[in-house]
Specification:
By secondary structure, this protein is an alpha/beta fold. It is built from seven helices and five strands. Helix content is 44%, strand content 14%. A five-stranded mixed beta sheet has the order 3-2-4-1-5, sandwiched between helices. The protein is globular, with a radius of gyration of 16 Å.
């Protein structure tokens, strides 16, 4: 078993605007609020380590900019390098990436309805399903657990990717994924058996 401290990246301007980021390289970096959130997460984790007498063994992060920035801020505070893993990326939203949620709702009515009817297996045009996200996130968590048995590890990722991981860890149906999206840059610990 490994203790995974899951952290969603800090806020970006696209989060504020309601623009869907997914995996697009055009997504902006953390904004001022996001940078402050990342600093607060770093302090939260450092305080937790001090309070509980634990040591973090590693920090893993999605390779997307907003997660990488968050992880680097945490890494500076904890004195650890960041290890990038593309399996921790956000869901690939295909043609929806970069669009406002309202635009998606107007232009892709049938596809969005399919997503709400079957949130696990439906996918945006040219994107991936939650099932596929859960599979790769689970593989990443398994690899981390094998590399760090009985240790505490920080994992920085994205809303739906972490929600899928939480569902897997808690034995919840993946259909609940949209209700499990964590807040920005608030660490929560799960036990992962790998």
């Amino acid at each position: 078993m490994t203790y995974l401290w899951l952290v969603r990246h800090g806020q970006t301007d696209w989060n504020v605007q309601g623009r869907w980021q997914g995996q697009t390289p055009d997504a902006p970096p953390l904004n001022a609020a996001g940078l402050a959130q990342a600093e607060a997460a770093a302090e939260q984790l450092a305080a937790q380590a001090s309070q509980d007498g634990l040591a973090f063994a590693a920090i893993y992060s999605s390779d997307l900019l907003r997660a990488r920035q968050t992880a680097e801020i945490i890494a500076r505070r904890l004195g650890l390098p960041v290890q990038l893993d593309a399996r921790l990326r956000e869901v690939h939203l295909g043609v929806w990436e970069g669009m406002l949620g309202d635009e998606v709702a107007l232009r892709y009515v049938a596809e969005l309805e399919a997503r709400w009817r079957d949130p696990v297996h439906s996918r945006p045009p040219q994107g991936e399903s939650i099932y596929e996200v859960a599979a790769r996130v689970g593989q990443a968590f398994d690899a981390i657990a094998r590399a760090h048995p009985d240790q505490h590890v920080v994992v920085v990722s994205h809303g739906l990717a972490l929600a899928a991981g939480l569902c897997l860890a808690e034995g919840r149906p993946l259909a609940e994924v949209f209700t499990r999206i964590p807040d920005h840059a608030v660490a929560q610990m799960i036990q992962w058996w790998g």
